[in-house]
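As promised in the previous annual report, we have extended the structural survey to additional targets. Below is the entry for Polyketide cyclase.
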Amino acid sequence: MPVTDVQHDMETLTLTITADFAAPVERVWQVYADPRQLEKVWGPPTYPATVVDHDLTPGGRVTYYMTGPEGDKHAGYWHVTTVDRPTGFSFDDGFADLDFNPKPGLPVSHNVFTFAAHSGGTHATYVSRYASAEALQQVLDMGVVEGATSAINQIDDLVVS
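The corresponding structure token record, generated without further manual editing, is:
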């Protein structure tokens, strides 16, 4: 399994996931740069993603929805803040309605994804920061650790095929 560690810290309001992939940094970068590849790993296996808009540039927007086993759809968006190809990017990630309007009352996280060469592969660090301990607890209660871990663990199969 690529995920090697998961930590949440209520003082710093962060959720940090680390993973190691058996592929070079540029290959891992491509997973996020290509919307069709991103669809294969953004949601957990039982909630595959469909990327609708994909502009991975500073100021750009990515919109997506995940479809559950019963056909239920859950939408979200990214507002891309920085891009440092191929070593990482940052974005604000929020919940949305099916027209991709932000859902009030649900947390928005600021995310920093970094990719570094390590032992012939890539060491990835995914840090999500929330505005409050309550917001972090809300996503923890929603199963973000299990969902993100299962989603990230799909990347290895994609990058080695």
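The radius of gyration is 15 Å. The first helix runs from residue 25 to 33. These points will be discussed at the next consortium meeting with the crystallography subgroup.
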